[in-house]
Amino acid sequence: MYKSKTVYKLPFLFFLLLLLSFRASAQDLADKANAFLNSLSPELRERAHFPVTSEERYNWFFIPVKRKGPTFNDFNEEQKEAATALLKASLSEQGYEKTRAIMELEKVLKVMENDDHMLYEGQPWRDPLNYHFCVFGDPSSTGFWGWRFEGHHLSLNFTSDEGQIVASTPFFMGTNPAEVRIDYQKGKQVLKKESDLGFDLLHSFSPEQLKAALFSDKAPYEIITGTERQVSGVEQKGVSYKTFNPEQKKIFMELLETYIGEYVFDFSENFRRKIIDAGLDNLTFAWAGVTDKSDGHYYRIQGPMLLIEFDNTQNNANHIHTVVRDLTNDFAEDLLREHYAAEHQNNR
Description:
By secondary structure, this protein is α+β, with helices and mostly antiparallel strands. It is built from eleven helices and 14 strands. It starts with a helix and ends with a helix.
């Protein structure tokens, strides 16, 4: 359920103290990034650290591929603790728990595939520790920098400026299997709410709304945006939020909150405010594929600055991909251009 207004009903002083405490934790992100970098050997630090202008910052993937940046497999216990502290500080508790759960699904795949010897680039094909850390720029409470956590079914991109996270997209989470059906971890569904709430909203529609929402009887095999640096060519389709009745709005906002809730408090509040300022009535919900869980299905939420995609088509519709894109600020590219333009102006 949409809960942003609950915060604003708190007594002003309590809210101010709460807000300051959360902002302080955001300020600590640079400290945790530096603690992580300083814990590394020179060789590992060289592998993990890139200029903020590096093209590698935009080189994001969510499938098993060869990646840059060291992984948990490369770290000693102190380094693992520093890496984990940085990850925790960059996500909400909900976001962190989902991230860890997605990593643990690698163990499920290893059991399902029944092969302890499958290798990729000399590393185990399924490995819950094979997730990479890359830091872009010099972490600072005043400067512009970013970092990425990435591996199979995770690509979490963060950009910070003046001590605050200013961008956290593209933000990809996926699960294979979507529902574990073997004895090991049986019944586990990491992205259950994203799936169930999508169906709840779809099944609440009137015939006219359903006709507007359905744009294809076949779901796309993959999220349409793929790993594009900038989203383009995704036509806005679907049924408009402004046609929703109160119960449908409640479901829709709970679905939206499920995605926004992965972020740390201050960024989620700013991102939510940005979506609202762009106009909830400008958002649409579109669906493709079957309207039950028997086969592949896909939905997207789209508006002037937002695109969320959910796709469950592979492995007999038991393999979910989701992504959140800020159509105006992925990778904080606009802010980065402004930052360097201002810096150039000041140095003239």
